[in-house]
Structures are given as C-alpha cells and as structure tokens.
What does this fold into?
Amino acid sequence: MKKLILVTSPPACGKTYVSKELSKALSHVVYLDKDTLICLSKQIFKVAGEEYNRSSDFFEENIRDYEYEAIVALALEALDYDDMVLINAPFTREIRDKDYMKGLKDKLKEKKAKLVVIWVDTSVEVCKQRMIDRNSDRDTWKLTHWDEYIAGCNFNIPTELDDPKVPDDLLIFHNSSREEFSKSLKDCVKILEEV
It folds into this structure.
C-alpha cells in the first residue's frame, strides 16, 4: 500500500536530519521539505512590507496554512508516481486536529494510500542547543523570546494518533542522543519497509 509519511515535531528536534537519513535508508521514497517553500514566504513578507518573523500574526494569517496546503498538494501528486512520499514539516497543530487528520486520511484513501506519522521525540534542552547551533534567521525571535516561544510548544507525543492494531500509524523516533538516533533509524526503516 502507498504511504504518506509525515516526519513531525516541534522545531529543532532534528526533523530535517531524521527525514534525510530515513530517506537515504529507505529503498525508495520521494522526499519533500516544507522549508523549501520559505523562499516564497520571505518574498511575501518583503512585498507586504512586513518584518520577516515566522512567529508573527502576519505569518499566521497570510502564510502558514498555505505552506502546509502546498506541501501536502505536492505530496498527494507525488503519490501518483511513487509508493512512498515523506514530508519533513512540523505539522504540530495539524496532527492534533482530528478533522484535519480525518480529511488527510480521506484524501489518501482516494490514492489507495495510508498515513504514517513519525514523531521525532527530543528533549527541550537538546532542541534549544540545536537551534543555537544551526544559527538560522527563522529562529531569531524564538531564541530571543525563549520562554514565550517554548510555552506555546507541545512536546507531548500525539498518542491519540496510535491505533494499537496498526503497527505503523504512529512511530516514535527518539533523537536526544546519537545512540537513540541509530536505534530509531534502524527500527523505523524496518517497520516502513515490512508493513
């Protein structure tokens, strides 16, 4: 059965690294990264005369949801040409929204595909250090207003997505250390390629 894999978590948990390493380890997959759309989002800020701030009301109202809409549309189209598509994106609100998830699963049924969510589980302390280390302008506001930013993040595993009868609907990728990463990579690849 075809699969749409969402690799998700709060920012700086290691989604991009995990997504790329998973994509390399799988025998075949179409890899899509929502961050590829940031160049378009930056242009929207510029044309609107707004400060570049991905935590702003302007971003929330005019950009955020459209980035997700675009990346999901690309993924659904890619499923016409390959059996496995992986999206690297936070999806932090969407995966906790029952209506959104049901709608996505319904779209996937039309493609004879199923949804697999991989939650990258990383400690808050490790995330902050990774954000500092990557030194990206998208994190400037977050680091400057750390307490406010982190209070709005949900690091809880979205267990409501897990159906005990389905072995690959929710996979937890532990990523606070190199040892956790190596074990999780091996386990996830095995499950994704066997089921």
